[in-house]
């Protein structure tokens, strides 16, 4: 098996899955019906991407692996998502800021992956890019609304930014797998992605009257499988059925 | 035109099977009845998201998770669509939400039962969406135009939900003994509440006569309930699980299934707020509403700021 390529797919899929999971927790509990529907939509898009990545990963892995065995039966340390997407739904400001930071990174990432030498990855990226563009538009609009809305919404959004922004750095940091994949022409060049992402963030924050936090990046290594304490609880939900009733068809 | 001739014209329209539109004159009672019924229906869609939403994060496969997310999202869409239909009668969505939270407005009692296992998601799709369709297919021909049109659109999605739920049950029943037991347990718990979804017996249903006359309803509660039993029993047979009613038998003479007595005391208990989850459901909606207040205020404030800026620019 092409181990590096497999792990790169986990890296891509796990980010979408854990963020999709956090959004799915909100279904039915949103601040309005319209936002409820929109956030569920984003969650659905992300899980759609997860399925594409993991179906391909299962193919590479062979050995009777399936999209579900990859999604649900790994141990905590084998998940490759960034810590940012694990952060809980503290309030709507946290939900929106987490989404916005991720989207600012995700869209330029996909824009690069469209040119991947791996045709399957390129095809998945091409399909996801339209979705991601919509996600970024949605989250940017809400950051502006909340940032430049009321006193309370401004404060809450700034607080969410102060909490979440220091986790963003991790997604830009090239891990050994990402370096290898970039060299092979399969993966993205994260330096380019970072530059575009930072630009987007600056533009949107200015319009939102929000401040880029002057806080050092947190030392986190989710991509290496060192997750937050939230992760075990996320997996308890996510894996519950597959763990309690192993090897069954659903 | 005096009230009497307006009334006559209205009744004539109804008798001729024409639809009543929001701009048309209508008796105050007709308007009130519709606000009550459509908002109650909308609330049911919205509260119904909670028991099913309870299993989204624990769905057993990616395929099922995506399908469940999409289903619950459809229900939100149904709620939205129905609130809009009710708004044409002169009530706002916020007012309707307040009525739901204060307990003044009701929603379908079925959603006050808990979803305890994954099989409950199958059973709800099969039975609850199934019962809803029977009611809603009838409502596609209801006399109030916006409500009838909303039903046409919603029914298509509900029948998709019903098939999906049945397919979950079928998979469980063809699975391991544990899975089949899970399906049977879900049927045991959801069967009787599903029969109660059609409302009180005709003899005890205060609104039925007027509703039939105004062609709001075209079939009685008992007729719809019978139709549901007749459709559902053979489906349970295919699954190979049994409906928890020893009096359920085919009646050659009537051409229908006979079935046992419904526990109406339980029904009224749940309607009156004493079901297992009544409090939880309203608390969850109250929490979302309260926590969403600053978000809604921010959206309004931001829109005003934007409008002011535009005005300044054009001045
Ligand atoms: Fe519905
Ligand atoms: Fe419905
Ligand atoms: Fe439905």
Structural commentary:
- Chain A has 250 residues and is mainly alpha-helical.
- Chain A contains nine helices and no strands.
- Chain A has helices at 3-24, 33-61, 67-72, 92-113, 119-147, 151-172, 176-183, 190-208, 231-244.
- In chain A, helix 1 packs across helix 7 (176-183) and helix 4 (92-113) runs antiparallel to helix 8.
- The model of chain A has no long low-confidence stretch (mean pLDDT 97).
- Helices cover 69% and strands 2% of the residues of chain B.
- With 315 residues, chain B is mainly α.
- In chain B, a hairpin with a 4-residue loop joins strand 1 and strand 2.
- Chain B contains twelve helices and two strands; from the N terminus they run αααααααααββααα.
- Chain B has helices at residues 3-15, 28-53, 62-87, 93-102, 118-139, 145-173, 177-196, 208-213, 221-239, 264-274, 278-291, 293-314, and strands at residues 249-251, 256-258.
- One fe (ii) ion binds next to loops of chain B.
């Amino acid at each position: 098996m092409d181990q590096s390529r497999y792990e790169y797919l986990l890296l891509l899929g796990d980010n979408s899955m854990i963020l999709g999971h956090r959004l799915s927790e909100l279904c039915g509990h949103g601040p309005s019906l319209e936002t409820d529907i929109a956030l569920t939509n984003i969650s659905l898009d992300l899980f759609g991407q997860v399925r594409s990545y993991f179906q391909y990963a299962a193919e590479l892995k062979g050995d009777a692996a399936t999209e579900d065995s990859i999604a649900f039966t790994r141990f905590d340390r084998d998940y490759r998502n960034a810590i940012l997407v694990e952060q809980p739904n503290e309030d709507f400001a946290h939900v929106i800021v987490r989404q916005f930071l991720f989207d600012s990174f995700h869209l330029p990432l996909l824009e690069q992956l469209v040119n991947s030498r791996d045709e399957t990855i390129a095809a998945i990226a091409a399909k996801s890019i339209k979705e991601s563009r919509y996600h970024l538009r949605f989250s940017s609009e809400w950051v502006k609304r909340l940032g430049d809305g009321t006193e309370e919404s401004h404060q809450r959004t700034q607080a969410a930014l102060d909490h979440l922004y220091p986790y963003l750095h991790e997604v830009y940091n090239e891990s050994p797998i990402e370096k290898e994949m970039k060299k092979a022409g399969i993966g993205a060049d994260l330096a380019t992605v970072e530059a575009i992402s930072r630009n987007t963030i600056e533009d949107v924050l200015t319009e939102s009257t929000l401040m880029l936090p002057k806080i050092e990046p947190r030392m986190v290594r989710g991509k290496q499988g060192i997750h937050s304490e939230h992760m075990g609880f996320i997996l308890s939900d996510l894996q519950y059925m597959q763990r309690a009733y192993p090897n069954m068809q659903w | 035109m005096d009230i009497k001739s307006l009334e006559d014209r209205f009744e004539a329209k109804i008798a001729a099977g024409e639809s009543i539109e929001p701009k048309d004159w209508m008796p105050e009672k007709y308007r009130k009845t519709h606000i009550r019924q459509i908002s109650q229906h909308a609330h049911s869609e919205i509260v119904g998201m909670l028991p099913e939403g309870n299993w989204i994060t624990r769905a057993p496969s990616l395929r099922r998770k995506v399908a469940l997310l999409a289903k619950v999202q459809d229900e939100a869409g149904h709620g939205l669509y129905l609130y809009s239909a009710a708004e044409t009668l002169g009530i706002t969505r916020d007012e309707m939400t307040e009525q739901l939270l204060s307990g003044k407005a009701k929603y379908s009692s079925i959603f006050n039962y808990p979803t305890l296992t994954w099989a409950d998601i199958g059973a709800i799709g099969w039975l609850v969406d199934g019962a809803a369709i029977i009611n809603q297919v009838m409502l596609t021909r209801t006399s109030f135009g916006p409500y009838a049109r909303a039903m046409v659109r919603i029914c298509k999605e509900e029948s998709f939900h019903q098939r999906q739920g049945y397919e979950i049950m079928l998979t469980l029943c063809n699975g391991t003994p544990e899975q089949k037991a899970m399906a049977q347990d879900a049927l045991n718990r959801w069967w009787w509440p599903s029969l109660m979804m059609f409302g009180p017996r005709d003899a005890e249903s205060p609104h039925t006569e007027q509703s039939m006359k105004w062609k709001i309803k075209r079939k009685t509660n008992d007729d719809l309930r019978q139709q549901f039993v007749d459709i559902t029993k053979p489906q349970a047979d295919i699954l190979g699980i049994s409906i928890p009613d020893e009096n359920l038998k085919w009646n050659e003479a009537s051409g229908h299934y006979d079935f046992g007595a419904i526990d109406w005391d339980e029904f009224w208990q749940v309607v009156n707020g004493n079901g297992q989850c009544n409090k939880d459901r309203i608390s969850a909606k109250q929490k979302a509403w309260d926590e969403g207040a600053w978000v809604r205020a921010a959206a309004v404030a931001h829109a005003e700021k934007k409008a002011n800026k535009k005005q300044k620019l054009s001045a």
